[in-house]
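2024-03-11 09:14:02 INFO worker-7 job=invfold-0412 stage=load source=structure_tokens
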């Protein structure tokens, strides 16, 4: 289904982005994998050398996007999965922490897409997928203002970009998961295992968080021609959490 497509995946070195890379390779696609962790990128490359191109790059180096993209050739899709979270409650608000989250989650994707468009890297009928979240567009959570703002921004970007790129038949959509079992949540030391266990009970489907591969399959659908008339929308994959 995707065997003639080349997809650029950011966040390819961990969690959801890594699962997306595995899923796309399984579906026969070629990938351009972006991340900062060289060891993990190298492992990915050895897995399918002829179908994996790796780019070690800090996406918050905005001035370098143009130069980094010169080598990638043309692509048929982009998945923007790079992202971070950080607790930043109003009483202890840190502008520095806030800006860090905004840079990678919100500014980098728009810089990347605009450079891809300007460089003519996106083939006609390409598909762009942003990994958003229910947190921001759908629900709130104490202490997460920056993260929630960035994810709400991505859903807004998707609508605007979808309109700007429709004349090239390029589609732009978001996938919005609830909690997913990745390093993003296990590395949040301020959240106890007990509170994660309690949160899991609030997921109607299975009283559990999602696995990264369950997000990857949704992304694959949006990258494929099966979703050829879907653009500017948000596909929620949260086991029913946000409909309660
Ligand atoms: N896990 C969840 O519960 C959940 C829920 C909803 C939405 N999401 C969203 O899903 C996306 C992926 O999250 P995840 O759970 O897979 O997290 P993760 O396992 O922590 O992976 C984050 C990825 O982002 C990359 N990254 C971070 N900063 C970067 C930078 N400055 N430049 C380049 N790459 C950078 C990391 O690459 P390096 O380590 O190589 O730098 C890593 O591959 C995020 O946008 C997140 O907001 C996650």
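2024-03-11 09:14:09 INFO worker-7 stage=emit residues=244
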């Amino acid at each position: 289904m995707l065997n003639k497509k080349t997809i650029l995946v950011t966040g390819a070195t961990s969690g959801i982005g890594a699962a997306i890379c595995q899923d796309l390779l399984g579906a026969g696609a070629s990938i351009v994998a972006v991340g900062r962790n060289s060891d993990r990128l190298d492992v990915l490359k050895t897995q399918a050398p002829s179908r994996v191109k790796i780019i070690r790059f800090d996406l918050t180096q905005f001035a370098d996007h143009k130069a980094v993209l010169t080598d990638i050739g043309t692509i048929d899709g982009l998945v923007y999965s790079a992202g971070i979270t950080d607790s930043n409650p109003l009483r202890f608000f840190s502008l520095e922490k806030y800006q860090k989250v905004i840079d990678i989650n919100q500014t980098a994707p728009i810089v990347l897409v605009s450079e891809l468009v300007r460089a003519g890297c996106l083939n006609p009928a390409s598909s762009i997928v942003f990994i958003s979240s229910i947190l921001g567009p759908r629900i709130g959570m104490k202490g997460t203002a920056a993260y929630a703002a960035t994810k709400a921004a991505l859903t807004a970007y998707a609508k605007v970009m979808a309109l700007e790129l429709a004349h090239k038949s390029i589609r732009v959509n978001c996938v919005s998961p609830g909690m997913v079992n990745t390093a993003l949540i296990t590395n949040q030391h301020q959240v106890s295992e007990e509170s994660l266990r309690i949160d899991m009970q609030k997921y109607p489907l299975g009283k559990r968080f999602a696995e990264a591969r369950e997000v990857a399959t949704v992304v694959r659908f949006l990258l494929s021609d099966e979703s050829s008339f879907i653009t500017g929308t948000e596909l929620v994959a949260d086991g029913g959490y946000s409909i309660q």
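2024-03-11 09:14:09 INFO worker-7 stage=report msg="Residues 70 and 119 are 8 Å apart (CA to CA)."
2024-03-11 09:14:10 INFO worker-7 job finished
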